[in-house]
Amino acid sequence: MTDEISPPPSPEARLLELERRLTEQEATHQARLVQSELKSHAVRAGMVDLDGLKLLDASKVKLTPAGEVEGADRLMTDLRRAKPWLFHAANSSTPATPPPSTPPAAKRATTMTHDEWQAARAELLRRH
CA-CA distance, 38 to 49, in Å (whole number)? Predict the structure, then answer.
């Protein structure tokens, strides 16, 4: 039993294989980026279940050189119109936090006009 050692691939064959793998990786990366952007648009559009993205034709969107997805908003609008049960009220992707609850600062008597002071005094006496 003899083990034959195969000759190393030629530089041209190795280059072709590396180019093929690079092309596959770029296609996979772009598909994942498009899917991620579509998920983001779906959440902002108010999609209830992201499994609804399987109903979309992702070939209708294209990736710009800047990495943005063109046509995603239109795709979500069309899907909302065709299948409204997949959506609820739209929301923002960044939840806003309410400002801290602090009572308004009372105006000092030294900064009030005479009429403001009389109105504030009458209100204070009315409450007590």
Answer: 13
Q: What is the DSSP string of 16-77?
A: HHHHHHHHHHHHHHHHHHHHHHHHHHHHHHTBS-GGGGGGS-GGG-EE-TTSPEETHHHHHH
Question: What element of type H or E holds 127?
Answer: helix 114-127
**Look-up: residue for tokens 């600062």?**
105
Cα 86 to Cα 79: distance, rounded to the nearest angstrom = 9
Got the DSSP string for 59-70? GG-EE-TTSPEE
Average confidence score pLDDT of the chain: 84
- pLDDT confidence of residue 105: 80
DSSP state of 99: P
The tokens for 64 are 């710009």
**What gap in Å lies between CA 93 and CA 71, rounded to an integer?**
18
Q: Enter the pTM of the model.
A: 0.55
Is the pLDDT score of 3 beyond 80?
no
